[in-house]
Amino acid sequence: MHPMLNTAIKAARRGATLINRASFDLDRVSVTEKHFNDFVTEVDQAAETAIIEVLKTAYPDHAILAEESGASANLHDENDYVWIIDPLDGTTNFIHGFPQYCVSIALQHRGIITQAVVYDPTRNELFTASKGAGAFLNEKRIRVTRCDKIADALIGTGFPSRDLSGLDQYMEMFKVMTGKCQGLRRPGSAALDLAYVAMGRLDGFFEKGLAPWDVAAGSLLITEAGGIVGTFSGESDYLYKGDVLAGTPKVFGQMVNLLQPFAASATK
């Protein structure tokens, strides 16, 4: 196992320990609304601090891009290595005791995601990937499904909950996809949804308005598991674009055909 991946696993487990401990007494967790329907808890912040401490101890010169604390001061100093962190993806689920959330950590090296960890503390499921070395769930190799027809596909998605200005457009996408696939699911954690595509629980996924920390780790899991990730237009520059589509190779292509009219460039 790559030593940087090992460090990321250690960091994810450190953050998850705090999350698990807090999950047993949610009534005592302090919750703040950053924006409309966008919540942060003291657990998010504590887990992120713990994760960063592990990473910076091992690699003090690496830059950080994290959901709660933002970018480290050296992010734009031509730093080759950037850790992209979501300490608790699925915060709304967490504060309601709904067991669908995870820790997501990825390492970007010269613009390319090279290491990925998505850890589900409620099920003790550890998804990992190193570029060129495959994707794994609890050290067992995983692959995307063989699904080649969207009519047979179970598709994950996320709908707008913070910026409701895009809700009408999403309902149009929902209508299009519902009429073409076998079923749509909205569990509420994009990083975990992407991991599920990688290991075959979902055949595809799409969502608009995602942040890099929602996508970075899960995207490497999928590509290392034989799937494809891109924008709604099928392009590869999805990480900072916000609109993300993923799936098995053939399902991905069929989803692009359906969702391309809703691509960011097409709606301007």
Characterise the protein shown here.
- This protein is an alpha+beta fold.
- It is 33% helix and 26% strand.
- The longest helix is centred in the N-terminal third of the chain and has 21 residues, at 3-23.
Which structural traits does this protein have?
268 residues; alpha+beta; 8-stranded mixed β-sheet; 5-stranded mixed β-sheet; 7 helices; 15 strands; globular
Number of strands: 15
Helix content: 25-40%
Shape: globular
Per DSSP, what share of the residues sits in E-state strands of 2 or more residues?
Answer: 25-35%
Order of strands, main sheet, comes to 4-3-5-6-7-8-9-10
What is the residue-mean pLDDT, rounded to a whole number?
A: 91
Broad structural category: alpha+beta
Spell the H/E element sequence. Answer: HEEHEEEHEEEEEEHEHEHEEH
Terminal Cα separation, in Å? 44 Å
- The number of helical segments is 7
- Please summarize the sheet with the most strands: 8 strands, mixed
Question: Unreliable stretches, pLDDT < 50, 5 or more residues?
Answer: none
- Cα Rg: 18 Å
